[in-house]
Design a protein that fits this description.
The longest helix is centred in the last third of the chain and has 22 residues. With 152 residues, the protein is mainly α. It folds into two domains: 109 residues, Winged helix-like DNA-binding domain superfamily/Winged helix DNA-binding domain (Arc Repressor Mutant, subunit A), CATH 1.10.10; 34 residues. The radius of gyration is 18 Å and the shape is globular. 60% of the residues lie in helices and 11% in strands. The mean pLDDT is 91. A hairpin with a 2-residue loop joins strand 2 and strand 3. Helix 3 crosses helix 5.
Length: 152
């Protein structure tokens, strides 16, 4: 990676994180859950996790993860299952209702921030293409593929 890539990423993150409040509120409203619970659900989409791993993945401490999982389990969104590799341990996985809730989160579309008014239609199409390539690379990396490196 280059220093320029780091600069672009920092600018993107600053814009995105500055404008997350409305999206988080919309997600919480859609699920009728605190946003932190939605974050726990979304971490379980790819695979079940143990409690410590889930706490680490959601950047919360173990007691908070336990409280969140207890709440989500009461609501029928997750279940604790015996870990087949360590029968003394449990993993947390989504129920069908939990998967449906996560699918609903994917449909929550906040309005673009006001800063996007600086982009003309061609700029928006170029940005959409760039983000699509980055998204495909992220999906490939998550599936274990080697990262694609741009030339130039």
């Amino acid at each position: 990676m280059t220093e320029r890539a780091d600069d672009v990423w920092a600018a993107y993150m600053a814009l995105a994180t500055h404008n997350l409040t409305a999206w988080r509120r919309a997600v919480a409203d859609e699920l009728d859950l605190p946003f932190g619970r939605a974050r726990v659900l979304r971490r379980l989409v790819e695979r079940p996790m143990g409690m410590k791993e889930l706490a680490d993945a959601t950047l919360i401490d173990a007691p908070a993860a336990t409280v969140a999982v207890n709440d989500l389990e009461r609501r029928g969104l997750v279940e604790r299952l015996v870990d087949p590799e360590n029968r003394r341990s449990k993993t947390v996985s989504l129920t069908p209702a939990g998967r449906e809730a996560c699918a609903r989160v994917e449909l929550v579309r906040p309005a673009a921030p006001a800063e996007f008014a600086a982009l003309d239609p061609d700029d928006l199409e170029a940005l959409a293409g760039i983000l699509e390539r980055v998204s495909r690379a992220a999906s490939a990396r998550a599936a274990g593929a080697e990262p694609v490196v741009a030339r130039g």
